[in-house]
Amino acid sequence: MEAIRIVGTGSYVPDTVLTNRELEKTLDTTDEWIVQRTGIRERRIAEPNEAVSDLAEKASAKALEAAGMSPEDIDLIILATITPDTCCPAGANWLQAKLGAKNAVSFDVTAACTGFIFGLSIAEQYLKNGQYDNALVVGAEVLSRTLDWNDRSSCILWGDAAGAAVLKKSEKGAELLSTHIHSDGSAGDKLLLPGGGSATTPISQESVEKGLHRLKMIDANKTFKVAVKQFAESCEEAAAFNGYSISDVDLIIPHQANARILNAFAQRLKVSIEKVFINIDKYGNSSAATVPLALDQAVRSGRIQPGDKIVLTAFGGGLTWGSALVRWH
Ligand code: COA
């Protein structure tokens, strides 16, 4: 049977750079605090006329080009996002229309920062069972629209970005060896965007004044510790499932939530930090977009070599976490 392979990747970030120094002008914060506590130096902010599907379209076009495929070839589009263009229809449908991918079925997946891994896992099942031959999996966010820019403990973390991967049953390409995904709904209140949902309707002056339409983090310190544990366990799960140990893994491409989380889970796994791909300094946390953005940058910069075993891993709101193991070609 032909393996399921990643045959093209792409990414896009908006042009506008928002540095910590600029945030100092409007917030009670400093560049030093943000760099020391998070590793973030700057992040990208979408233009007012750029929606998630616009960022996703640009990343997808690059992934399709790398795969040597046209939009009409695509069978399935999965867009991982918590900031779709509209609540209805799905952001994936706007993306499908913009790409002209008229033969593809399209839908969104809501799994916050783990969304891209969830998308890979769903695509893997459809390709395995034979219903579709290929899939475009995208992670894209315009989080800047959802932030409370007066909340220094949260707004400094996030950024806007998109990344995409084309999966195909093929003899050539990077083999997707496994995916594992997990949820803990009982801790769903830790990262919350309540406004507009049926628990808080109708949308009102009150819901706006209460900030219910803004992304909120509760108990971020506790979430930090859970994240370290789940990142490490997800990597171990991916390696063990494929008969590898962590030392066999050549590169870990994790969700970029906080550089201290990445350092802590690398220590816990006893892997050198050199084996962990980090770009949070330039882009912050773009939720579902971080993993495919980092993957594309690792591919295009030559950081990934033929034969490398790569673990993609993420943790995020929901709570959700998971991993994928890919053997590069
Ligand atoms: N600038 C300056 N000071 C700040 C600040 C900022 N931007 N944000 C918070 N502070 C202050 C706090 O008010 C607090 O002051 P106090 O001691 O006088 O009360 C102090 O810094 C320490 O705050 P704390 O929240 O303990 O900092 P931290 O080291 O835990 O870092 C996070 C905060 C949010 C960066 C960190 O906890 C984190 O990354 N958590 C996980 C993030 C997460 O959940 N991501 C989503 C899932 S992927």
Provide an overview of this structure.
The chain has 329 residues and is of the alpha+beta class. It has 2 domains: 3-173, Peroxisomal Thiolase, Chain A, domain 1, CATH 3.40.47.10; 178-327, Thiolase/Chalcone synthase (Peroxisomal Thiolase, Chain A, domain 1), CATH 3.40.47.10. It has 10 helices and 13 strands. Strands 5-4-6-7-1-8-13-12-11 form a 9-stranded mixed beta sheet, with helices on both faces. Strand 4 (76-80), helix 4 and strand 5 (105-109) form a beta-alpha-beta unit. Helix 3 (52-67) crosses helix 4 (91-99) and helix 7 packs across helix 8. The mean pLDDT is 96. The site of coenzyme A has 21 residues, from helix 2, helix 7 and strand 12.
Secondary-structure element order, N to C: EEHHEHEHEHEEEEHEHEHHHEE
Q: C-alpha Rg, in Å? A: 19 Å
How many domains make up the 3D coordinates?
2
Proportion of residues in helical segments: 25-40%
Q: Strand-residue fraction?
A: 15-25%
CATH superfamily of the largest domain: Thiolase/Chalcone synthase
The parts where pLDDT drops under 50 for at least 5 residues are: none
Q: Given the helix and strand composition, which structural class is it?
A: alpha+beta
The largest sheet is:
9 strands, mixed
Regarding quaternary structure, what we see is single chain
Bound molecules: coenzyme A
CATH third-level topology of the largest domain: Peroxisomal Thiolase, Chain A, domain 1
The CATH class of the largest domain, by name, is Alpha Beta
- Globular, elongated, flat, extended or rod-shaped: what is the shape? globular
Mean pLDDT: 96
Number of strands: 13
